[in-house]
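Question (not urgent): is this output format expected?
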Amino acid sequence: MQVLKKITLFFLVLGLLGCNNRLTDNRIDVSDQKYDIIDYDTVNQSMRVENALNIGVLLPLSGKAANIGQGMQNAMFMALDDLKNNKLVLKFYDTKSTEIGAAEAARKAISEGAELILGPLMGEEVSSITSLALSSNIPVVSFTTSPQVLQKGIYSVGLLNSEQVERSIAYGASKGRSKLVMLVPNNNSGLNIVKAGIASAKLHGVDFKKVGFYNPNTMDFTGIVRDVSSGKDFDMVLVADTGNRLKSIVSMFAYNDVMYPNVMFLGTAAWDSTNLSKETILYHGVYPMVSKGYGNSYFANKYHETFGEQPKPVYSFAYDSVLLASVLSSKNKNELDAGITGKAGFIGVNGYFKILPTGQSRHSLEMLEVTRDGPIMISPADKRLVDRDTEETDVRYITYEQLPRFYGKNSSEVLNWLNNN
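Got this back:
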């Protein structure tokens, strides 16, 4: 077998000791599937090391999300090949892309000695393993972006909507923008974005004027854009969508004479999956993204070289989860939760990130601007995150007068969801 070409990449793990020792060997329990590019004879050596950290990795290796799960597994193999940490033992368990499969996988992983779980992918899968993991005192570092399923002991390394919304609104406010409207899909993701918008607007002194909810399957935004555009009493519009829906939404805003420079368009990281270089209406629009510096480029290039395809964004979070686990392997196994939520945080291929005791993650995000030549970085990612652990805004205590007007969804239904989530 051809040995994977090594490229030296130094990961700085802030404030954590035991990471300067040279790590000499990877160990991983693998399935029968082999990749010609990786030397599994080296990666899967039988040598046993005392006090190794046994990790159960729960991924959808079959079923509807199998392609994503297998890509994440590839990224984890890549991380192990880079780290050469002989104190990590990873064993993969197939969630079969279902809640029942995730629960079965977690039971098997724990019965076989897992001391830490990485995964699963989806929020429903995380919910299905929560009681078992907590009762077994096994920390979970998942990849979900559903904040409702997170708590102490059940964490996520994924990029949450709340941190993206906060970064976008903070940037708009820093440029003198002070009046916000949003257009979001009428589903739980949209409601989470609205919740984050309410908290972020209060934090940055922004007047959150209106929210328009639309059917996530529609392509007709005539009515909802007309409703939120009435009065034109705003200077920021956050659109939480991508692809043709994003293009249709901003075209309808332009039809209603809502465009730059009177209004700044804000987005989420989902914008990065759409080629916006020909969308003149969105020129000067901005959105947040994990750092596209050396680490992210290194990961994307090496993944492409190794596996012959461009990685999906979630693959890089799978890579960083192994980095996190590598740090934990030098910790006392009774202190894994403290290691996961340490205030110093971590630096991986997605830049600086930390995991809060609430289970939510926060990443240092840069801001990109849409131009005819493609996105350009206009605000770099902070090297460290401001510690706002105790500054989380509880939207239940925001007065009715401070809430935006809701269009496309019953106000009482929105308020009931906000009060219970």
